[in-house]
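Researcher: Sequence of Helix-turn-helix domain-containing protein follows. Predict its structure.
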Amino acid sequence: MNNQNLAIKIKDLRNRKGYSQEQLAEESKLSLRTIQRIEKGESIPRGDTLIKLTQTLGVTPDDLLEWTDIEDKGYLTLLNLGALTVMIQPMLGIIIPLVMWILKREKIKYVDDTGKKLISFQITWALTLYLVLMIASKGSYLPINFSLLNSFTVLITEFSSIGIFIIFLYIYNLISIIINIKKSQKGLKNKYAPSIPFLK
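Model: Prediction complete. Tokens:
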């Protein structure tokens, strides 16, 4: 790991803990100047300094030194593909990407950004679907187990505007995922809209 990547990681970990540089220095029993030099990439913490710093930040020395911001277009593609489980069950379209995001959000470039956008989009999409279904059923039930197959059944048996809208929701979700898979393969940032930013 180069000094700059390490500096970024330490600063990120400090911010996650809610520490200022002064607080980190105080908690780790290191000088403020040492913390500033590490975060500027002017020095690499070693020995006792590394141990004090990692203990305060709640990580192991290996975790800190082995961290790299690698680029993995394959994992980004899989992350987006994980959302296709929405076709089986809407909650899966949230849960699968959420697990994948948690596992690699700090390890792979763009996973944090893509995961937040994708999960927020899928939550917004699921809420819209359930709201439409509750309106259609006049609030008589909460359709948690609804799936794409159910929506085709609704469309065929009732051929209503609700059925058409539900199919449209599924098609829009599918197209959004496909577009973002192609963006990931080209190394571009993903964009999912519209969505409520549940994860920031």
